[in-house]
Amino acid sequence: MADAHGTQHPALKHHFDNLGHQHESTTLGIWFFLTTEVMFFGPLFFAYTLYRNASIEAFTLASHHQNVTLGAINTVVLIVSSLTVALGVYFAQTNNRSGLVWSLISTIILGLVFLGIKAIEYRDHFQEHLFPGANFHLEGATALVEKKAEMFYFLYFCMTGLHAIHMVIGIGLFLYILRRAARGDFSSEYYGPVEVTGLYWHFVDIVWIFLFPLLYLIGRHGGA
Asked: What pairs with residue 2 in β-bridges?
């Protein structure tokens, strides 16, 4: 896309005809990437379903050792962060640099809050000997139930750990986007990186929306 002087936008890559074509390609690319992410998390959800159906009593008992309050707070934190991301995209599209910068800062802070709360949960699990391994112990469980409950915590740490890694990556990406936003790289003409990173963040948030009830709320409905 050229301006009145016939020069191209500095963000336009040489292999694209214009910014519109570039934006469509990057958006399609992130959707393909997110599809691979679904396939990445999918086997873990499938394994969880199989083991839970085979060991519902053990999984329910193990779930009752989760801190629902902290899990719920983190859920709210991520939902709010999705809002700040959406606002960031809007501000980029409307040439509101200060709004974009503050939205990105808010998202980064909320992401760090989530990871901090998760670190507190992990610390508590280690102190209560709920990390899978030789020292694993689930209070009030028989040897057989304890062994099955250990699988719950194995899947718990795998799933939440991978989710946390994705959170760290997302925060890193937003720090990069924030640096560019502060120097005025984005506008109504060019906001693709903000939107693409936002889509990645929304995906990470959605994964947690599934993890929270699966890992924290088993058997808590109906007065169980």
From this structure: 8
